[in-house]
């Protein structure tokens, strides 16, 4: 076999290895990010994701995972008196959820729910504006939940026990959902931080009607209200 043939074979092998490596490193498992909802989606239309979300297990920081999405609520009176599902990691009967994001039944609050081995813990996020995009990020560890609103830490919530994960897929807008839109819902197999949220927020779901209503648009009272019982 001539040296030319050997070199060509070697180059072909290297090219194949590069293609395989690129495919692996670009996969959700390698990047740690799984996209669930991409473009702007009607909040009233249920979506049952076919994508399996792996449980967090033996991460470098222990049990860690995050979810993030954009939410815009048009009308808080829609389905008044009924908690409205934005998304849940769990079955559509809501028997388990880890985590879930709701719109409150009778106020302009968001509700985060997360199952632990001690029960379901509920975290309210008050005073959400209507007809404006809000970015919500939920970072879960073995001991706590960090809630970020528009890239800022809204609340650090200590859990009573370890989160109780489930093997269900993610569902959005169950049973009519909410009057609004959801976009950019993704799962991360690591804890989100303000630094890692910043580039996510740079990809805001802008439409012709949204050019003047993107964050930030809150005064200091929003960040202090939940600390002083102002929800």
Automatic annotation (TrEMBL):
InterPro entries: ConA-like_dom_sf (IPR013320). It holds the Pfam family Laminin_G_3. This is Lectin/glucanase superfamily protein. It comes from viral metagenome.
